[in-house]
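Lab channel / #folding
Pinned by the channel admin:
"Please post every new chain as: sequence first, then the structure tokens as a reply. Keep commentary short and put observations after the output so the thread stays searchable."

First post following the new format, from NK:
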Amino acid sequence: MMRSPLMIAKATLVALLAATATTAAAPQAHARVVVDQLGREVTVPDEVNRVVVLQHQALDIIVELNGQDKLVGVVRDWPKLLGGSIGDYAPIIKTLPQPGDLKTANVEEVLALKPDVVFMTHYAPAATVESLEKAGIPVVELSFFTAPASESAKLNPSLDDENTAYTDGLVQAVSLIGAVIGREGEANALNDYVLASRKIVADRLKDLDPAERVRLYMANPDLHTYGRGKYTGVFMEASGGANVAADIKGYAKVTMEQVLAWNPQAIVVQSRYEPLVAEIKSDPAWAPIQAVRDDRIYLTPEYVKPWGHPLPESMALGELWMARKLYPDRFADVDFDARVQDFYAKFYRTSYTGR
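Reply from TO:
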């Protein structure tokens, strides 16, 4: 019988938490061993009350799991990385020290915060991770995808099945964060919600002929876009689109000639790059492209977050939002605004007031 990603993640997490460390040093009293997404065994306290988060997806998820009271330090530039409104949902974030970014950490500043655990990216410098661990601070690294060891630490991994890798990776990351900070029930509820929402989209697009898929282009500043190896491609595929830049690896700069040759039928722009919409519409170089001629340039709401790595709201809301834009007839009966409010009420404990 085929098991769902959530069942797999739960089974994996139980096994990870039951594991014992293989290092010479025995785990501390009142501690347990978890395995992070790089496959590293990390000894963490049974009760975690002080958390430093130098990874923006993890910061967002901790807020969704109602764990913001445990935060003592957050990633630098979090408003740019996540959107400033998360500070309204969890005002404590605005007051906290920022001892590092996605690739660096000020070890002295982190130690001064006396964290029980630090969450970092899967591509954090090994020397920084080692410095923190030598000082007695557990570091849990998160990738939000599943991959062989040879790819797990890469920013742009090669993945045989990107949809499975990012779906399982998100479920696993949410479960791991929930287990570490003592929010297992909330993590299970969040994962259940995400998978149920994705099923709505999958069921309504299951008979979509590949030839009917809308050619979709993700426009970023300075002619940058996302190709394979990123969640963005999964976002497009899950919503019924076909990423015209699928032959490119990672996040890369392209040429106007390439975009003209691709001739996308629709263009999507992330909310953080809103001025780009007007630039594309007014630039004569873009005028021949079908998406511009047909006025199918879509600016994402803030919660969509179609980035290189997924977030729960990306999968639960973003993919449905995109699918409705591409195939409105297939989702005409879906009260999307109600679903957005339901998600925010359940996981941010507030209403969504953005656009």
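NK: The CA atoms of residues 174 and 187 lie 6 Å apart.
TO: also worth noting, The chain has 14 helices and twelve strands.
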